[in-house]
NADPH-dependent diflavin oxidoreductase 1
Amino acid sequence: MEDEPNKKKLLILYASETGNAMDAAERLGREADRRCCPVSVLCIDDFEPKSLPFEETVIYVVSTTGQGDVPDSMKGFWRFLLQRSLSKEWLKGVDYGVFGLGDSSYQKYNFVAKKLDKRLLDLGARPLIERGLGDDQHPSGYEGALDPWMSKLWKILYNKAPNLFPNDPNTATLNGTWVDQPKIQITYHDVGKGNSQCSAAIDFKSLEMLIERTRSMSPGKSSGKMRPDCFLNLTENCPLTRPGSGKDVWHLEFEAVSSSIHYDVGDVLEVLPSQDPVAVDAFMKRCNLNPEAYITVQPSKKENSMGDTNHAPDIPVKLKTFVELTMDIASASPRRYFFEIMSNFASAQHEKERLQYFASPEGRDDLYQYNQKERRTVLEVLEDFPSVQMPLEWLVQLIPPLKTRAFSISSSNSAHPNQVHLTVSVVSWTTPYKRTRKGLCSTWLAGLDPQQRVLIPAWFHKGSLPSPSPSVPLILIGPGTGCAPFRGFVEERALQSKSGPTAPVLFFFGCRNEENDFLYRDFWLSHLQSGGVLSEDKGGGFYVAFSRDQPQKVYVQHKMREQSTKIWNLLAGGAAVYIAGSANKMPSDVLAALEEIISLEGGVTKEVAARWIHALEKSGKYHVEAWS
Ligand SMILES: Cc1cc2nc3c(=O)[nH]c(=O)nc-3n(C[C@H](O)[C@H](O)[C@H](O)COP(=O)(O)OP(=O)(O)OC[C@H]3O[C@@H](n4cnc5c(N)ncnc54)[C@H](O)[C@@H]3O)c2cc1C
Ligand SMILES: Cc1cc2nc3c(=O)[nH]c(=O)nc-3n(C[C@H](O)[C@H](O)[C@H](O)COP(=O)(O)O)c2cc1C
């Protein structure tokens, strides 16, 4: 996949937030390579958009994030493409294809792929192939749509540009002699005992740097900042739900121990979870890895042919530390390519055949059932295929990267200097084969003992909920753990109200039962009392939908409809709407309820009401933070 300037080639540009679009683009690139088609695969922000008109064929693989937003890596490219000065013929002569990755449970399904497709068309580019849309909800995930889209693409490309394909593209993949090479190389280092840079870090700064340099070496590193903003210690944890309620939600309080912290209400905390040491040891043993070895990881010579000569030499890290901090061995499921490469290293014939089947288009659905549906971990897969011994290069390249996890901050920094609070729901589910699976980070956090004083690497981020000014009336909707950011909002406004006038706040909360999972009940009720931020006398309100306390289901949108006039009056007075919580149906149900309220109270049609909300969004007064 080397870049060969001035030569006809296929250009694949990807924009990814969590790695799927990058995987899909790399797969396209490998398939092109196997067909001997010259190809370049680039992250979209590594490509100069001004040179787009000079390309002949560009395939875009883009995911949608946030609420219909472009991934961070695409922001600059997208801004460039939206410039009014670009003419309708700017991309005349450029053929393109778009494959989108999204999730149809989101309101703005594959929004980025759709708007990119439209914009390219507006700029005169010519679509080679109908837009492909990968959907997380498909039984085989995004690959369900990618496989047929790719087969179609090769046929179209072969007809259009046969000179790109020295061989027939439909048979090239059947060529069993193809063996991929890893994209990274690993160097082992003989580290003397006295080398202080490589020995165990002892102070916070060295620990932060160790995390930074280890995670920077990972081929699956995200685009974010590698060095943690701080280390946190857990100071308090208490359950917010009753056992047997079907939910397991915890209130967690942390203090910053390495440096002081600053955040706004509505911000998000990213936490790097710790992996189970037993699993790490089992993995090292299974793969015959020496935990005490010191390594550095670099792109292979071929991958680095672009000449990254300015790259400072990496400082070696202990192999075990590298595994602990960067490779998700006992939580995430490996990708399909992992099975394909494993098959090359299986010494038992029956294992090789099974792995080859899994990696083939025919085996895709069975692989999905075995792997993704069962949330099979890397360690489990390796144990299921004991004859496979994979070189470390492949393990490092293909094992899913250990990702940080996002949680909405549920405290106000002004109310709790140097502290940060989270409201964490412990992720747990049963697979079709009745295996209990647990979320890595939420299980780890909820199980921590404050006495252990474990250091938790953390990063602070702006989310989708900007901190509101005290003079803006607020309509907050946050069922379940969606209440987390609004606990911070209410704390902050309570503090602000001590020093000056503040605008009213309406808060709509939802849970299953009053008895079992009414999160922060006493907190909300205390602010509902006379003079409180949510009190009637301050023009506020607090409304709870207990979905299962009566025969018919009651949700936040039902409670909103009951308060139709109040909501309308606040909206007319310049209120901002904030929604947080489950990405599934909640944001669209809430939106529909708001449209109804505006239509009813304002005496306008639903279409006018929808435009009203659109205008609210444009003016920065409609915000959604939703997660699945
Ligand atoms: C901006 C933002 C703010 C957030 N705020 C909060 C918050 O305040 N509180 C909170 O609790 N969470 C919040 N989340 C969600 C939280 O980040 C995720 O739940 C996170 O994955 C938990 O990490 P974990 O390691 O425990 O679970 P992971 O190990 O990451 O496992 C989660 C994954 O497990 C799988 N999974 C989960 N349930 C099922 C199921 N029933 N069937 C099949 N697969 C399943 C899914 O693939 C899911 O992505 C937020 C997310 C974002 C993006
Ligand atoms: C925080 C978050 C927000 C998302 N928002 C949307 C969305 O608005 N529309 C959509 O179609 N898919 C959405 N998705 C689904 C992703 O697009 C999908 O999981 C995709 O495979 C991710 O690809 P990536 O890893 O390349 O970013 C969202 C996923 C996450 C985690």
